[in-house]
Amino acid sequence: MKEYLKRRLKKKIIVFVLSNLLWVLGMAVVIVVMSSMFMAFQSSEESVSSGVVSGNKNLAPEVLAHKSTVEKYASEKGISSEVPFLLAIMMVESGGKGLDPMQSSESAGLDPNGISGPELSIKQGVAHYYQTLQNAKKAGMADDKKAIVQGYNYGSYYPLWLQQNAKRHSVDVAEMYSRDYMAPIQRANGFPSAGTKYNYVNAVSQKDGRTYLYRDSGNFFYAELCFQYIAEGSEGTDATGDLQAGMDGFVVPLKNYTISSPFGYRILNGAPDLHRGLDMAANEGEPIYASKAGTVTISTTHKSWGNYIVIQHEGGAVTLYAHQSRLVATVGRQVKQGELIGYVGNTGDSFGAHLHLEMCKNSSLSSDMLIDPQPILFGKN
Ligand SMILES: [Zn+2]
To answer: How far apart are CA 357 and CA 68, in angstroms?
Structure first.
């Protein structure tokens, strides 16, 4: 899509949503009903997810030149771990060129080209991303990075739309958003040809097989375009040698934390209850590092542990990292000590972002085999 049209589209949508909120909400109900009817017919197609385009492309030097500015504003918002995604977005938006490298003037409520320079563009672009991330957290999908990145193109409302329609982001679902949600709004807003297909041919669309987009209705390949620049395993920086050393070769798996609840028996609802691990409160998104080298044996979601990872260490002991906002390390991965494995979150049985760390003598994770992590990490008092 031409940059001008895209800016105009994004601005139009924001103005439209703000000024017609009730109408939009009513429309959303209709669309939910319609799309659930539609989904009944489409369910077999829906289960075939599109291939993920692997991230092996390099960021342009013009983007890397803005990296420290992106890091500055991401840090101000407490989202330093999002820098790789912000740089990928910049790469797709502008290649790092021009006065508005994040193409963020419209989300500031300014005219296209109303951004006076790269720094303001980046500041506003980070704020727009942050708002989408907040909505993703509200929608319980802070770990769905593609949904958040797609929201940079679709508007920060996108994760909430996903939640209301009981969906996770995929190219199929994003296409539905363009065609069934955005296009009708655009048509009602004075773009009569919104929603008609036009040719869109590049490496990403060709690999997918759909070489089209819907006019005036966003780019449903946007997250895929950006993720070309997110290499697997390079989402964050490892912390080898940079973490507080404990005993038996373990290190403290967080850099910034406060111990909030010890291991051991506590009284819960009048009865003794074993707290199986050590709770370390930290900001949502704080990186979690492997306490010791080993093999990732579990990386999944559990009702009470939330998103969690188990690492099997040499000699038999395992460590477990619960309530993560997002898992990075996958099953079978050989991790080094200090390698980034995921991010602190508030998933599962959790009240406030924290890492619940368990240590067990063996892989059984049975309660009589658990060890108190505190003396191992911090020594006996
Ligand atoms: Zn805990």
So the answer is: 33
Query: DSSP letters of 143-178?
Result: T-HHHHHHHHHH-TTHHHHHHHTT----HHHHHHII
How many angstroms separate the alpha carbon of residue 95 from the centre of ligand 1? 44
Q: Are strands 212-214 and 306-312 parallel, antiparallel or unpaired?
A: unpaired
Report yes or no on 11 lying in a domain.
yes
Task: Report how far ligand 1's centroid is from the alpha carbon of 297 (Å).
Answer: 20
Instruction: Quote the domain boundaries for residue 276.
Output: 258-378
CA 246, CA 68: separation in Å to the nearest integer?
33
Spatial separation of the C-alpha atoms in residues 348 and 200, rounded to whole Å: 41
Domain annotation covers residue 246: no
> How many structural domains is the chain composed of?
2
Alpha carbon of 277 to ligand 1 centroid (Å): 5
The reply to whether 290 and 343 lie within a common domain is yes
pLDDT tens, residue by residue, 302-327: 999 999 999 999 999 999 999 998 89
The answer for residues whose C-beta is within 8 angstroms of residue 258's C-beta and 6 or more apart is 280, 281, 282
* pLDDT, tens only, 27-86: 555 554 444 444 433 333 222 222 233 356 789 999 999 999 999 999 999 888 889 999
Residue 82 lies in a domain: yes
Residue with tokens 């946007």: 222
Same domain, 154 and 268: no
- The domain that holds 315 is classified in CATH as 2.70.70.10
